[in-house]
Amino acid sequence: MQCEFCKIIRGDAAAEILFRNQRAIAILDINPIHYGHVLVMPNNHASTFLDVPDEELHDLISVTKVVTQAMVASLNPPGFNIFSNNGRAAGQSVFHCHFHITPRYDDDKIQFILKLKKYADDEMARYAERIRHYIDTNPIHEIH
Ligand SMILES: [Zn+2]
Question: Which CATH topology does 4-112 take?
Answer without folding.
Answer: HIT family, subunit A (3.30.428)
